[in-house]
Specification:
The protein contains 18 helices and no strands. By secondary structure, it is mostly helical. The protein has two domains: 184 residues, MFS general substrate transporter like domains (Growth Hormone, Chain: A), CATH 1.20.1250; 173 residues, MFS general substrate transporter like domains (Growth Hormone, Chain: A). It comes from Deinococcus rhizophilus.
Length: 396
């Protein structure tokens, strides 16, 4: 009787490659500093305009920031393709530092046009340095890119929390300069972006941005005729527009309710945690259950955030801002995953999101001035139903 064949030797499973954290550290640190700069400056821009006496224009800075980011993103993308990520990101950080300095000077002198110019330059810078996520993805093997991007999102949380802890220092700086904490925050933001630019001098990219292959992708019109693309764009633009509108204008409501600078900074930090702190959970959840779950969950949470912002008591504002961030996260991750199959639509869809955000903040400021914050919140709750249409049209 023949002996049974010997079992084949076990093949060792290759361990997942470790992330080059030492090489990535300057990039991650720069992203944390950039988020901190946004926390102490542009997010609170509505308060600066209101304190200058232009209450009906409190949504204008966020509108200019969104419009500038929409116009600059493609230009910075082209710069990074031709000169590399380090040059492109460093240029964006320097531009942001200049814009923050102008914003501080304009706000302190009471010159609204100068302040708005600084806000516009800050927006243009964001259109560039928000592309750091692509640099992080290019720095690791394909199998580890999700982890690298998740860590980059967590660094955004770290930067926001850092600035929350430093809110007392911002207040003291404002007192020394004879300015409000919101105005002093612009000077601090400029310093943070300057340090981020210096970090780019020591960061060594592993690879450059992927080169486009002519004729390899369908055109814009053909892409938007493909099933599911327009509904995905609707979900992304809606989530971005509602998130930026409420994020930008809720601090004004908190300020009117007597919340001090530290309290407003804490509200924003909670919002940032909701936006970025749960990417490690929402990504796998959507991979397992499908984008429809993300659209439905995002719609429900965005609507809940708008409604809870109208409730009495500052604690509800904290709940609203956190839920707003988490709802955006679900819709954004779902839409981004669905749109990853349609590269030709990605830039245009991002542009639609910026347009929605700019229009929302501008109109929202006017609505608050004429009808009050609750009317704006109820309108946002109705618009939050739009991703349900995306869920109905989408496949898994």
């Amino acid at each position: 009787m023949a002996e049974p064949p010997a079992p084949a030797p076990a093949v060792p499973t290759a361990a997942a490659p470790a992330l080059p954290l030492g090489r990535l550290f300057p990039l991650y640190a720069a992203q944390a500093l950039a988020t901190g700069a946004t926390t102490v400056s542009t997010i609170l821009a509505a308060l600066v305009v209101g304190n200058l006496g232009f209450t009906s224009l409190i949504g204008l800075p966020a509108t200019l920031i969104s419009a500038s980011a929409a116009l600059s993103a493609g230009l910075f993308g082209a710069l990074m393709l031709s000169r590399g990520r380090r040059v492109g990101l460093a240029s964006a950080f320097v531009l942001g530092a200049v814009g923050a300095g102008l914003g501080f000077a304009g706000a302190r002198a009471g010159l609204l046009p100068v302040f708005l110019l600084g806000a516009s330059l800050m927006g243009a810078a964001q259109g560039g340095y928000q592309q750091a996520r692509y640099a992080a993805a290019e720095s690791v093997p394909e199998s580890r890119r999700g982890t690298a991007l998740g860590l980059l999102m967590l660094m955004s949380v770290a930067g926001s929390l850092l600035m929350t802890g430093f809110s007392g220092g911002v207040e003291r700086l404002g007192e020394r300069l004879g300015a409000s904490p919101e105005v002093a925050g612009w000077l601090v933001g400029g310093g943070l972006l300057g340090v981020a630019a210096l970090l780019m001098l020591v960061w060594r990219p592993v690879a450059g941005p992927a080169q486009r292959v002519a004729g390899a992708r369908p055109g814009f019109a053909a892409t938007f005729r493909q099933p599911g693309v327009r509904s995905t764009a609707l979900a992304l633009a809606t989530a971005q527009g509602l998130m930026v509108t409420l994020m930008s204008l809720t601090p004004h409501r908190a300020h009117e309710m007597g919340v001090d600078h530290a309290g407003v900074a804490a509200l924003i930090s909670g919002h940032i945690v909701g936006m970025f702190g749960f990417g490690w959970l929402t990504g796998p959840l959507i991979d397992r259950l499908g984008v429809r779950v993300g659209y439905v969950g995002g719609s429900a949470l965005l609507g809940a955030a708008a409604l809870t912002a109208t409730l009495p008591g500052t604690a509800w504002l904290g709940v609203s801002m956190f839920v707003l961030g988490l709802g955006w996260n679900l819709a954004f991750v779902s839409g981004s995953k669905a749109l990853s199959r349609h590269p030709a639509a990605q830039g245009v869809t991002d542009g639609l999101g910026y347009v929605a955000a700019g229009a929302g903040t501008l109109l929202g400021g006017l609505i608050i001035a004429r009808a009050g914050f609750p009317v704006l919140a109820y309108a946002c709750a109705v618009l939050a139903l739009l991703p349900l249409l995306s869920a109905w049209r989408a496949g898994r």
